[in-house]
């Protein structure tokens, strides 16, 4: 009897320790100490395993749910899915509808990040069913927004994406428009997403309506995306004066966003941008004040001179000015993207400082979107020509299209240069179906 009491007391103490570790992990997660938080969660799970806590323990479910969110944030998608799936199993045993609903949604996020879109749709639909059954309007609004933005827009079904985001804004049916459960920040995100979707479908009037609504947001990062899209619309419509205005607003918000973040990388970007702004101001004093010349921004004296020397051999003086404007605007646009800036720094200075970088899915999505803007929907034409290509294959092709070396691309993908050569060969032979094509991989990409 005494031994049983001691054993029970020990289990109770270990249960308390596990609970304390979980709470410490949650605190560390809020403070963005991800590695330390995961360590606390793993120790807590180990304690639960040692005391043979019930598999349906609410604590076990909560720990796995938090671990999955951390793994997903840092791109460890397999680990994120395993953790959320374990949380889902626990919630099912507990018959916790709200827990199951959130776990299904998180599982959908994890597999969507791995481009398993059909499986992601199944998990999202399961979350929808539960949210509908328990009449959780807040979750329904969130799910409509998330699926419209992160699922349907990502697979290119823009019309369905528009419908879903509108459901999030106005309710289950657009006709009734009985209000939304979205918070202010999510409403701004929904308006921005609709603006981008209408831009993709070339409905520019609707796009501008929703983009202007999104500008009420106080978040510089969101405003940057809005101004970037408004710039693209104005540039497409030939309204260059308005395009310059939005580009300046984009630049101002980029500086404001950088001021709110710490780290040497953001400081370096700020310095580079300020230097370019100074060069632009100096050149504008000595140039004609025509509208076209406002688009010319110097990237560096050396690159600028090299471009001029190459172009002067092939085309006349008027074509030089037009191509010079195009190249300067292209570089100015791409310098707003973290992937492009990181690759550019790696190509110029391969140091321990430039090797210390992190990139997430949104950075890559933005890189593909900007590459499409510069190269006339390059990724869409690429996938239409070679439909077997996956998202990361498209990322590699976009990096090649932007002229980055094999060494730089292999560093960005965290792989050996030899392994990257083999990966390009597999893409060309298996996914492009060009085993006998004598052209180089880069020649194939540049021909698209």
What does this protein look like?
Among the domains are: 14-135, Serine Threonine Protein Phosphatase 5, Tetratricopeptide repeat (Alpha Horseshoe); 337-448, no CATH class. 33% of the residues are buried. The protein has 448 residues and is an all-alpha fold. The chain has helices at residues 2-30, 34-50, 58-73, 77-94, 97-113, 117-133, 137-152, 158-170, 184-200, 204-214, 220-237, 240-259, 264-286, 301-312, 317-334, 338-348, 352-355, 361-374, 378-385, 391-401, 406-412, 417-431, 441-446. 75% of the residues lie in helices and 0% in strands.
Give the secondary structure arrangement, pairings included.
Blueprint: H1 2-30, H2 34-50, H3 58-73, H4 77-94, H5 97-113, H6 117-133, H7 137-152, H8 158-170, H9 184-200, H10 204-214, H11 220-237, H12 240-259, H13 264-286, H14 301-312, H15 317-334, H16 338-348, H17 352-355, H18 361-374, H19 378-385, H20 391-401, H21 406-412, H22 417-431, H23 441-446
Helix pairs in contact: 1-2, 1-3, 2-3, 3-4, 3-5, 4-5, 5-6, 6-7, 7-8, 8-9, 9-10, 9-11, 10-11, 11-12, 14-15, 16-21, 18-20, 21-22
């Amino acid at each position: 009897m005494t031994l049983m009491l001691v054993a029970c007391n020990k289990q109770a103490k270990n249960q308390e320790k596990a609970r304390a570790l979980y709470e410490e992990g949650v605190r560390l997660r809020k403070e963005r100490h991800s590695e330390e938080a995961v360590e606390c969660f793993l120790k807590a799970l180990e304690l639960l395993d040692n005391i043979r806590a019930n598999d349906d323990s609410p604590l076990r479910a909560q720990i796995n749910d938090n671990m999955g969110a951390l793994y997903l944030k840092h791109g460890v998608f397999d680990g994120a899915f395993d953790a959320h799936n374990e949380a889902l199993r626990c919630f099912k045993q507990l018959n916790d509808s709200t827990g199951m609903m959130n776990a299904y949604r998180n599982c959908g996020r994890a597999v969507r990040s791995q481009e398993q879109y059909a499986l992601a749709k199944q998990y999202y639909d399961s979350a929808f069913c539960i949210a509908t059954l328990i009449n959780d309007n807040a979750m329904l609004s969130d799910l409509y927004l998330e699926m419209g933005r992160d699922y349907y827009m990502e697979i290119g079904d823009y019309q369905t994406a528009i419908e879903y985001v509108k459901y999030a804004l106005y309710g289950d049916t657009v006709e009734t428009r009985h209000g939304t459960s979205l918070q202010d920040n999510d409403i701004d995100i929904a308006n921005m997403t609709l603006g981008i979707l209408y831009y993709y479908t070339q409905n520019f009037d609707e796009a501008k309506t929703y983009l202007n609504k999104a500008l009420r947001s106080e978040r510089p990062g969101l405003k940057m995306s809005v101004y970037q899209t408004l710039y693209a619309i104005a540039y497409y419509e030939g309204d260059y004066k308005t395009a310059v205005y939005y580009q300046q607003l984009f630049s101002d918000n980029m500086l404001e966003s950088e001021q709110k973040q710490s780290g040497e990388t953001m400081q370096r970007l700020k310095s580079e941008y300020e230097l370019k702004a100074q060069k632009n101001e100096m050149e504008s004093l000595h140039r004609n004040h025509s509208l076209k010349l406002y688009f010319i921004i110097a990237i560096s004296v050396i690159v600028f001179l090299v471009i001029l020397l190459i172009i002067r051999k092939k085309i006349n003086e008027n074509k030089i000015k037009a191509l010079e404007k195009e190249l300067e605007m292209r570089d100015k646009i791409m310098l707003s993207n973290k992937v492009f800036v990181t690759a550019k720094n790696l190509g110029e200075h391969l140091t321990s400082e430039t090797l210390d970088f992190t990139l997430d899915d949104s950075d890559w999505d933005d890189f593909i979107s900007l590459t499409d803007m510069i190269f006339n929907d390059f990724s869409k034409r690429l996938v239409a020509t070679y439909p077997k290509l996956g998202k990361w294959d498209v990322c590699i092709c976009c990096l090649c299209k932007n002229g980055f070396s094999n060494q730089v691309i292999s560093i960005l993908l965290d792989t050996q240069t030899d392994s990257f050569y083999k990966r390009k060969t597999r893409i060309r032979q298996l996914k492009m179906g060009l085993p006998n094509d004598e052209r180089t991989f880069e020649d194939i990409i540049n021909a698209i």
